[in-house]
Amino acid sequence: MSTTLITGGTVISAVGRREADVLIDGESIAAILAPGQASALGIVGDAAIDATGKYVVPGGVDVHTHMSLPFGGTEASDDFETGSNAAAWGGVTTIVDFAVQNTGESVHDKLAHWHQMAAEQASIDYGFHQIIGGVDEESLKAMTYLVDNEGITSFKLFMAYPGVLYSDDGQILRAMQNASESGAVIMMHAENGIAIDVLVAQAVAAGNTDPKYHSYTRPVEMEAEATHRAIQLASVAGNVPLYIVHMSASEALEQVAVAQHAGRNVFAETCPQYLYLSIEDQLAQPGFEGAKWVCSTPLRTKHEHHQSDLWKGLRMNELAVVSTDHCPFCFKDQKELGLGNFSKIPNGIGGVEHRMELIYQGVVAGEISLERWVETCSTTPARMFGLDKKGVLEPGSDADVLIWDPNGKTKIGINDKHHMNMDHSAYEGFEIDGKVDTVISRGTTVVENDTFVGRKGHGRFVKRGLSKYLH
Ligand SMILES: [Zn+2]
Predict the structure, then answer these.
(1) Ligand 1 mean position, distance from CA 158 (Å)
(2) Which of 255, 324, 341, 417 would staple 351 via disulfide (CB 3.0–4.6 Å)?
(3) What are phi and psi of 29, to 5 degrees?
């Protein structure tokens, strides 16, 4: 096994920073050494990386991606190859994607399908959450089996999308009770889909078909109400750990904060699109342009204080994690399915490449600390979802490393930095004060010198343990 010594950098963890050298042996971190210690011990490394002036941080962990997701008559445009490569370009070394089961389908068959898609394609490590789109005796049994045997310890349910992935309150309660028994985490898409579908039908009937009506028909009350209801159901189901995905609205965040103060096991994530993008600046662009930013939960108005509240939530740990909900669709032929009817626009934004960059910009802007950047983008997502060897640079952990250049610059855009399989960028023209320098996945360099040097198939499925966040 070969060794690599990363010298001269500043190692950032969730709790602090120090000048240190990082010794990698094979696929693992072997030691974190004080400056000068390596030469005193005669350690040189088979390979050496000079990280002087740079930050050395645990590789990014994005726990919410949808490679090749079937949605609205089409499929997310990144597969596990293009999507994992783009993730690596963005300093991400682990993704947790969603295997999808719909009503009447076998959970085991669908999980096998996702395994098959990822196994030969992924260039970085990956795990799966299981979406349960049809809660019944069979799928409940499968949930227990997956926790006990398959390293799948989190299940996502939908209060949105009636007739597709939607679960009613009774089904949600049953799945939560099951998870409470097995120790799994319940992830929730919290929007009141039944009421939203009424608003959507009314908007379309009234001729209000532009992309911006996607947000107007999914008002914050519908996110806040569903969040509240999910929290109450989780409480009844034995205080099962509940993780609200893609939180976009102050009113929903408030529900999480209240529950946390009451001692409930409630957690939440947000995504860069909710921290940076809005109805006015993106979704309401003239004509059909806004379709690029149709996602659920939707972008919110910039005239309320959603974005500042979400940043505050990240500081206060009301929001524990930043993920991307990476679900890319091309404008041509995919987003265009909704020309003349916003409700037919595939829901999703591609962002797996840009999360580390965009949240680092929050450090530059003074919203969060460097340590909190590492914590929300690497350490906590790993602990939350039982990725026991990810998210930290400690002896014995996987050698997943991002070397970040704080003096570099990144310009995001279709003709600038853009490696996702999409014909547009949701963050076109964004400029970041910092840059991905080198990315290492289990000891193997996958990005260096602005070049992808990884390989399809290097990525390995990671069996996850139970959430460590409560223990
Ligand atoms: Zn999602």
Answers:
(1) 10
(2) 324
(3) -75, 125
